[in-house]
Amino acid sequence: MGEVIEFGILDGVASTTIKKLHKAGLVTLESIAVTPPREIVELTGMGMETALKVNALARLEVDPGFVSATELLEMRKHMMRARTGSKELDRIMGGGIETGVITELIGEFASGKTQICYTLSVLAQRPVEEGGFGGRICVIDTEGTFIPERVVQIAESRGYDAQEILGNILVARAYNSEHQIMLVKNLPQVCQEHDVKMVIVDSMIGHFRGEYIGRGTLAERQQKIAGVLGNLLRVAEAFNLSVVLTNQVQSKPDSAYGDPNKPTGGHVMAHACTHRVYLRKGRQNTRLIQVIDSPYLPEEKIRIAITEAGVTDEEGEWDIYDKEDTDEIEI
Ligand code: GTP
Ligand code: MG
Q: What is the pTM of this model?
């Protein structure tokens, strides 16, 4: 969580150094304290001596020990939740998409990942009284699938002023993995300047998978992905905002158990994302959803619909089909 550090709070550290830290996404004392000096050097380009010094000073400033569960609860009170468009989805997400953590939407093509992103970009910017965060949305689009017309359609279907909604969404197209890395590094500045409350990366792994091909490149690829995820997590904590990532599945037919489709990005992705949400195509315009691998959310299977208004609850009697379709999800 942590306060965004002000220039000069670290005694004896030059403001240019603080600026370098900010640029690298190290915007809280906590994030500086927990980042190894060698990584601070890599991220900021500052010398090792300076990195050692800021790391040590930051560790002195933050309480490195335990906090009581009461304090933890107090910290989590600042956490907010944004509604998704589907009450059922909100319910299994514990009330909506959380701030301070990364939520990952996993699924094969046309499973509805981007449709959830569109809907969130409209709903999460709504005022807090309406179940939103009352802030701007920042979208990093790596696939060129974020089409403003769809935002307009969702906004108008829900009776909102489409121009106002569009004005609160900042979109950056990432053309390759290095570009994506750079855009994520710039997030602290963008989030501060524009009061961003949700960052969407659609999709997180695509470029990396496309560019790092072959076994020999795996370690480097995973390291780069870990760097981006680390920066995203720091931004989520420092600005108390939601990070939502999409991730495709890859088929691993040799897997010994369960669903042969595994999320891409491996352990690095699995560890960084607090809530992993698995989407499956259902009958007609419905999608089956299950939270997997969350520290406290139940692994219940629910169904949403994709309509003109984006993500909604399914209307009508769906129990009849429920058993048949939900049995498809075996993770
Ligand atoms: P990839 O990006 O290819 O991995 O897939 P995705 O999971 O992001 O899929 P996406 O969210 O783009 O979902 C596409 C599906 O949404 C398609 O099957 C469309 O039929 C459906 N869809 C898109 N727009 C509309 C709409 O206006 N109305 C309805 N009913 N469905 C829509
Ligand atoms: Mg998509």
A: 0.79
Nearest CA to ligand 1 atom 11: 112
Cβ atoms of 247 and 204 within 8 Å: the answer is: yes
CA of 113 to the centre of ligand 2 (A): 5
Residue 183 CA to ligand 1 centre (angstroms)? 26
- The residue extents of the domains of the chain are 1-72, 79-326
CA distance readout (Å), 276 to 97, 106, 197, 224? 11, 7, 20, 21
- pLDDT per residue rounded down to tens, the chain (331 residues): 455 555 456 667 888 898 899 888 888 787 888 788 888 999 999 999 889 888 878 877 776 566 678 877 777 778 999 999 999 999 999 999 999 999 999 999 999 999 999 999 999 999 999 999 999 999 999 999 999 999 999 999 999 999 999 999 999 999 999 999 999 999 988 998 999 999 999 999 999 999 999 888 888 999 899 999 989 998 898 889 999 999 999 887 665 566 678 899 988 898 899 999 999 999 989 999 999 988 888 888 999 999 999 999 987 444 333 444 444 444 4
For the domain made up of 79-326, give the CATH fold.
Rossmann fold (3.40.50)
CATH superfamily, domain 1-72, is: 5' to 3' exonuclease, C-terminal subdomain (1.10.150.20)
| Integer Cα distance of 182 and 159 in angstroms | 36
Cα-only R_g, the chain: 20
Confirm or reject: Cβ of 310 under 6 Å from ligand 1: no
Tell me, what amino acid is at 108? E
